[in-house]
Amino acid sequence: MLGPFPFTGHEGLKSGRCAGSRWIGRSTFGGVSLPLTSPAPFRPSAAQLGLMASNFLMWGGFFAVIPLVTVHFVGDLRWTAASVGLVLGLRQLTQQGLTVFGGAWADQVGPKPLILAGCLLRTLGFTWMGFADSLPVLLAASVLAGVGGGLFDAPKNAALTLVTREGDRTRMFSLMSTCGNLGMVTGPLIGAALIGLGFRTAAISAGAVYLLAALVLALTLPGTRPAAGAAGGGLGGLKAAARDTRFRRFTLVLIGYFILSTQINVLVTLRAVELAGKSATGPLYALSAGLAVLLQYPLVTWLDRALPTRVALVGAVLLVGTALGLMAWAPSFPALLGCVALYSLGTMTVYPAQQSLTARLAPPEQVGSYFGFSAISLGVGGAVGSVIGGWLLDVGGRLGLPALPWLTLFGVSLLTAAGLWWALRTLPRRVRPGR
């Protein structure tokens, strides 16, 4: 890395050679010959590769079985849709609620043991689902799976922060998200192949995938403990995150974004079905996840070098809102897919920016607590978005204003973007990529 040497007169670069992507040369400063090197290229470590591989496995295992829960218990066993909705909602509530505390515990004991324990509990929960023959049993298995997710969710982000240099965190979170999206694409395909062998086989197989993820992380992820005498996590870490005015504002304003992002499962899906029938959901999700797999890493890497993180985040939120607003006038399914492409470009940019900013704002000894506290925005925004999306659609229909939900969401994006710009108006100095 070039040092801040005040070259003057004839003093400067004398000789050099290029080795790979690093410039190696020598300079003279005050009569002393000094080596000059550019930043080393980014190469993921074993721990980072392990986290990416496990994220792919976790997302793949999740989407291999969760979509089949409705198919099996409602379609095959003729349970009511409301009962299965209760099962899925309870798992989501359990996971998001426990994630707040999972991050705080990671600051006390280190993230690795919590991630491994969470994977094992998720294995047991999904396997138990395969043997469920009554609603209470399925609810218990779902809660166990949710507890597992709550244990590994925030600690996984904390672990990635601890094993990644600050300048490389945005691209690493982007790679993690890309691996997750790849799992989201392949998981349903594997699940569809396994359902022919029975739901029990699919559930056991999905649980085994989490066992494999635990093995990968056990071999690659180093154990980390809080520094002696450091003010760790627990409830104290959560209180510190809640009292951090800048971070609290950042987290609360992001609720607006998650109201927008959850619409892919609500308003956007309903609009796709309206335009092209039930078969439209496959291409819809394939396009969204496929674009993330192909474009997220190069897009985020370019943005990370070209723009301040705050600018990229605010612009991405506005893009998501604009895409939703345009969907009101999409005359056909291909036109809707074009809006979904814009929507996906925005959402794939927000996640790594949000995670990178959370890591930057958190004190090193309370990273897990801050990631846990940040889960509030997803939990609240996702729940509110699911309710308000359908409500706005009903109100618009009654008033004869079909564009009402879409224009309302565009307004939410404007307020959210303005709120983020205000909440992040002062930020710690950012370390540039590669440094």
From TrEMBL:
All residue ranges annotated as the Major facilitator superfamily (MFS) profile domain in the record: 48-431
Q: Where in the cell is it found?
A: Cell membrane
| GO CC list | plasma membrane
Q: What does the UniProt keyword field contain?
A: Cell membrane, Membrane, Transmembrane, Transmembrane helix, Transport
What coarse category fits the chief subcellular location reported for this protein? membrane
Q: How does it sit in the membrane?
A: Multi-pass membrane protein
Task: Output the Gene Ontology terms for molecular function.
Answer: transmembrane transporter activity
Bilayer-crossing regions: 56-75, 134-152, 173-196, 202-221, 250-270, 282-299, 311-329, 335-351, 371-392, 404-424
Enumerate the InterPro entries for this protein: MFS (IPR011701), MFS_dom (IPR020846), MFS_trans_sf (IPR036259), MFS_Transporters (IPR050171)
Q: Which Pfam families match?
A: MFS_1
Q: What is this protein called?
A: MFS transporter, DHA1 family, multidrug resistance protein
Q: Which organism was this protein described from? A: Deinococcus reticulitermitis
